[in-house]
Design brief:
The strands form 2 sheets. The protein has a 5-stranded antiparallel sheet, with helices on one face. The protein starts with a helix and ends with a strand. It has 3 helices and 10 strands, in the order αββββαβββββαβ. It is an alpha+beta fold. It is elongated and about 55 Å long. About 20% of the residues are buried. The chain folds into 2 domains: about 80 residues, no CATH class; about 80 residues, no CATH class.
Length: about 170
């Protein structure tokens, strides 16, 4: 288990690991703040599915509560209340296509990393640079567009928005 976690996350990060009926709940250990018997509150949890190896991220509830909820969802056939973080499912390329004083427009290209037959999709994302409100050419803000907006904002340098980049999730 430690090798899988070291592969997914940064080397040196340690976890409290709790085995459940259908997997393992892994709670990161804060440097010097967690005792071996008490996880640090406020940090999220990861669950590794025992059958598939898929890793999902969950809330900061106590790891045993996360484990109980995870097992119940698997047992009853309900969706797991976590977001998959491993294996990575999507590659997103963000390319700037237009910019003026108030807005920046990106073409957001999403490609499946798991299903090669899955079609590549493109979304037009327009961000107001002052208010950070955004719109797309689709209904609402799809997840790749929301992540692309966050990526673009985080990668600004001296108020200059990035021209091109790729990330995976």
């Amino acid at each position: 288990m430690e090798q899988l976690l070291a592969h997914i996350f940064q080397q040196g990060l340690k976890f409290h690991i709790y085995q459940t009926e259908y997997g393992w709940v892994c709670h990161p250990i804060s440097s010097g703040r967690d005792s071996p018997n008490r996880p640090h509150p406020g940090q999220g949890n990861f669950v590794v599915d025992a059958e598939t190896g898929v890793v999902t991220v969950h809330s900061s509830l106590h790891p045993l509560t996360i484990g109980e909820r995870y097992d119940e969802a698997i047992r009853t056939g309900q969706p797991v209340q976590g977001r998959q973080v491993y294996p990575l499912r999507w590659s997103v390329t963000v390319r700037r296509i237009r910019e003026d004083q108030t807005e920046i427009e990106y073409h957001v290209l999403t490609r499946s990393l798991l299903e090669t037959s899955h079609p590549t999709t493109g979304i037009q994302l327009v961000i107001n640079k002052k208010t950070l409100r955004s719109r797309t050419n689709e209904h609402g803000i799809p997840e790749p567009a929301a992540l692309a907006k966050s990526w673009a904002y985080a990668n600004r340098q001296n108020q200059t928005w990035p021209e091109l980049g790729t990330f995976e999730y």
